[in-house]
């Protein structure tokens, strides 16, 4: 682009108007290097205390996830699911068997199925009191 005329506004000039033009006898990189040198000189003159590295132990990598899940489940142990046929069967049982509980029956059925399908994950929560 051509240099802007004296008194002309920078508006409408796009990115070139926002970038400060350096004087011809002053190289563009000189100021940036000076700033970098100042920063690096400060760093070398004052030694910063090194951050302590946290030693990684041989813990279960899922421990944080498990702890979060346990807290969440203790607050709200409910799950929702949609199964029209299962709902029909359970409601039929509720209407035909005295003291039948849809929630208790669904809980037993789901626990058995989840434990059978995901035994390794099930064991992760074996010691938890829900």
Set out the fold topology.
Blueprint lengths: L14 H4 L10 H17 L17 H13 L8 H13 L5 H16 L1 H6 L6
Account of the protein in words:
The protein is mostly helical and 130 residues long. The chain has a domain at 81-130. 53% of the residues lie in helices and 0% in strands. The chain has helices at 15-18, 29-45, 63-75, 84-96, 102-117, 119-124.
Summed up:
The chain is mainly α and 130 residues long.
Descriptors:
130 residues, mainly alpha, 6 helices, 53% helix, single chain
Rg over CA atoms, rounded to whole Å, is 34 Å
Number of strands: 0
Spans of at least 5 consecutive residues whose pLDDT stays below 50 are: none
Order of helices and strands: HHHHHH
Round the mean pLDDT to the nearest integer and report it.
76
**CA distance, first residue to last residue:** 70 Å
Q: What's the story with the biggest beta sheet? A: none
Helix content: 40-55%
**What is the overall shape?**
elongated
Beta-strand percentage range:
under 5%
Secondary-structure content class: mainly alpha
List the total number of helices: 6
């Amino acid at each position: 682009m051509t240099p802007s005329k004296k008194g002309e506004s920078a508006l409408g000039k796009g990115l070139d108007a926002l970038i400060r033009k350096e004087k011809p006898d002053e190289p563009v990189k000189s100021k940036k290097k000076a700033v970098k040198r100042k920063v690096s000189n400060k760093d070398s003159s004052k030694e910063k205390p090194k951050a302590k590295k946290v030693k990684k132990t041989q813990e279960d990598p899922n421990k944080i996830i498990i702890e979060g899940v346990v807290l969440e489940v203790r607050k709200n142990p409910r799950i929702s699911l949609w199964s029209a046929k299962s709902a029909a069967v359970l409601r039929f049982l509720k209407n035909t068997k005295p003291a039948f509980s849809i929630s208790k029956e669904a809980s037993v059925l789901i626990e058995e199925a989840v434990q059978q399908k995901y035994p390794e994950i099930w064991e992760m929560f074996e010691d938890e009191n829900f």
